[in-house]
Amino acid sequence: MPTYLEDFPRPEDGFYVLVTGANSGLGLGIGCRLIDEFLQTRPQSQELVLIITTRDKRKGDATIEQLQAHLQKACRQLERKVPGMSMVLQRRVHFRQEILDLTSLLSIQVLAKKLRDTTPKLHAVICNAGIGGWVDLYWGRAVWTVLTKAPSSLTWPTFKKSGVGWVTKPQLPAKKDGSRADEPPLGEVFCANFFGHYMLGHYLAPLLAAHSEDEQARGRLIWTSSLEGYTHSLNMKDMQSIASTEPYEASKRLTDIMALTSTLPSTAPSVDTYLDNITDTEKKNRPRIYLTHPGICGTSIFPLNIVLDFFMFSAFYVARWIGSQWHPVTAYKGAVSMVWIALAKQSLLDTMEERDGLGKWGSCTDRWGEERVERTEVEGWGFGGNLGQKMSKWYQRSPYAKDLTKENKAEFVKNGEVLWKEVEALRIDWEKRLEDAGVAIKMD
Ligand SMILES: NC(=O)c1ccc[n+]([C@@H]2O[C@H](COP(=O)([O-])OP(=O)(O)OC[C@H]3O[C@@H](n4cnc5c(N)ncnc54)[C@H](OP(=O)(O)O)[C@@H]3O)[C@@H](O)[C@H]2O)c1
């Protein structure tokens, strides 16, 4: 076992949550919101261990500083309600930072091994980090559709221009003679948004399976999808979307299909190996995959200059005021669905899923910015995989949505089966390549 120099917080009654890409946007919003909701809803005896990942230590330090400042502010506010509580509350939150680059399979293995060696368990892993892969806007279309089709055009935009053909840096080290090892390309957006988290989830399954104080509770792999996971964006013949003009949307479609088919009998053989063949026993619970999305929030996922940033935020607020439920706008509000899934009682989630099927849980708000979590329609799955499920008349539907039919549901399920098989095969293939190159990290 490698030696680690840091001192890791390991409170006995700890609630351990890992958040990837925590230094900006939604990731930071998730960290702040988790602190607030944890302190307000969990018993005084319980302590939160918030493990954040960033791509380098400087970003990690800055993030911890911001989270510390948020914690102090939250404690000052709670102190006004319950005097004398501030210090007690502050001691209930611990921070830890780690480095993770999701486009480097080795970086994922290194982090997973370290967590397995130093963390007693994980209650939730929030797979948040990601990239857009966009290079520009189609300006004419952007102006026209925003002026004529808002708020729909600001929720399901058709004017983002993607980079095409992006692949990650080589995963394998150069050979002794300096030449590059033979390796297949790995789509960059696919790897940052989907495959990297997929690998991480596999390695962390044993930590998520460890029993906690609530023996019913299952470790949760919480995925961050988007409203833009369209059927038309994903071509399963190019699963990594290397040739695609919509690799971001395709990666979110993969996320939706993977998560929503993860409990079906037809995907079980692949999901079993993925989850390390963990079944429910006296000592372990099989982890669960949950699907969320943050609605639309103003973050740096699409880098804009200060003037355009101002226009973006203004347009998002206008969209909300003219009736879009899908514009939480701020990252803190957008984090409501991920944090809710992380903290909700297992019995509540199980009951809702038994009644209405597996859902995609979205962050939304009313006109006044009051946030809530709502089931979101998915092409080929509807709201929970049940035919005939009705939506409220206020529900804002994607322009690409089609009513759920037996046929399109069967296709969705079939795609799930194919996807799980292919992505499991890809995981095993890359593990072997790393092993053959002598760089793989052994997990046990
Ligand atoms: N904003 C929205 O409206 C919206 C809507 C739907 C879904 N989402 C999803 O929400 C998630 C967060 O997005 P955001 O809007 O908060 O964007 P953001 O502000 O750009 O944050 C993305 C985070 O991911 C990290 N990241 C990027 N590539 C990475 C890699 N290869 N390895 C590790 N970390 C990496 C970034 O780190 P660096 O700072 O080092 O780049 C950053 O911390 C994404 O999955 C996105 O698809 C966002």
Features:
single chain, 444 residues, alpha/beta, Rossmann fold, eight-stranded mixed β-sheet, two-stranded antiparallel ribbon, 14 helices, globular, binds NADP nicotinamide-adenine-dinucleotide phosphate, NADP, lipid metabolism, 3-beta-hydroxysteroid 3-dehydrogenase (NADP+) activity, lipid biosynthesis
Rounded mean pLDDT score: 94
What class do helices, strands and sheet pairing give? alpha/beta
The CATH architecture? 3-Layer(aba) Sandwich
Radius of gyration: 21 Å
By oligomeric state, this entry counts as: single chain
Low confidence ranges? none
Total count of strands: 10
Short summary:
With 444 residues, this protein is of the alpha/beta class. It is built from 14 helices and ten strands.
Description:
There is one protein chain. The protein is of the alpha/beta class and 444 residues long. It has a single domain (100-436), classed as Rossmann fold, CATH 3.40.50. Helix content is 43%, strand content 12%. The chain has 14 helices and ten strands. Helix 1 (25-41) packs parallel to helix 2 (57-81) and helix 7 packs parallel to helix 8. The model has no long low-confidence stretch (mean pLDDT 94). It binds NADP nicotinamide-adenine-dinucleotide phosphate.
